[in-house]
Amino acid sequence: MPWLRKTRPTGPVPFGYKMAWIAVRCDRPAEVGEFLQLNSGCELSWTAGIEAAYGSQEQAVFLSPAIRGWTFVVGWSAAAIADPQPNKSFRNSLDRISQRFGEAQGFATHRVSEYHHWMLAKAGEIVRSFEYAGDQGEFLDDFGPLTEVERSIPFFHRPKDEWRPDEDDVMRVAAGWSLDPTALTPESGAAEPGLFGVIGLSGLHL
């Protein structure tokens, strides 16, 4: 990625819509990057890193600085959205990450295809997974009991044939489990650099 260059650190910037990400319960991003074997990387500010995550055509992610005990891995490859079985890929990734760090959460949403996905893993086990492909009108996964924040989402209280999740539901779940990335502001965390690079960990679908 020779077009990337080191940029001056900025505070956090919002992301989330038309994006995928993993939230790792860890306040030491360097350890997350070491575990993922992030390589071919470049140190970038929040602003440049999120822009790169949205604009990259490569299998690359932005590893954010930590915010309130969470480190984000941002990029479409986090959800393996091009994989014919993205749920399987997400499960494999979160299993391994949560086994190492205790807890990992996966999110993806894209309003064009109405694809919405959230998944929670603890200690190497998936405890909750929900996946909806609106363009197909299919619920691809609905595993595990509803979490507290999900019980506050109105459509879950209707018959399943009336369920219509959307991108704001993804953000609501993210806020309940960890942090809503669309609500981030420069005041949400310190002006520190993150890393943009390619995952090198063998067998991990990122």
Would you give an account of this structure?
- The protein is α+β, with helices and mostly antiparallel strands and 206 residues long.
- It has one domain (19-198).
- The protein is built from four helices and nine strands.
- The protein has helices at residues 29-36, 46-55, 86-101, 167-177, and strands at residues 19-25, 38-44, 60-63, 70-74, 103-110, 115-122, 125-133, 138-143, 194-199.
- A nine-stranded antiparallel beta sheet has the order 2-9-3-4-1-5-6-7-8, with helices on both faces.
- Strand 3 (60-63) and strand 4 form a beta hairpin.
- The radius of gyration is 16 Å and the shape is globular.
- The mean pLDDT is 89.
Report strand order across the widest sheet.
Answer: 2-9-3-4-1-5-6-7-8
What is the domain total for the residues?
1
Alpha-beta content class: alpha+beta
Shape: globular
Largest sheet: 9 strands, antiparallel
Strand residues, percent: 25-35%
Helix content: 10-25%
Q: Total number of helical segments? A: 4
Estimated radius of gyration: 16 Å
Number of strand segments: 9
Give the termini separation: 17 Å
Mean pLDDT across all residues, rounded? 89
Concise summary:
The chain contains four helices and nine strands, in the order E-H-E-H-E-E-H-E-E-E-E-H-E. With 206 residues, the chain is an alpha+beta fold. The two termini are 17 Å apart.
Keywords for this structure?
206 residues; alpha+beta; nine-stranded antiparallel beta sheet; 22% helix
Topology:
Elements: E1 19-25, H1 29-36, E2 38-44, H2 46-55, E3 60-63, E4 70-74, H3 86-101, E5 103-110, E6 115-122, E7 125-133, E8 138-143, H4 167-177, E9 194-199
Antiparallel strand pairs: 1-4, 1-5, 2-9, 3-4, 3-9, 5-6, 6-7, 7-8
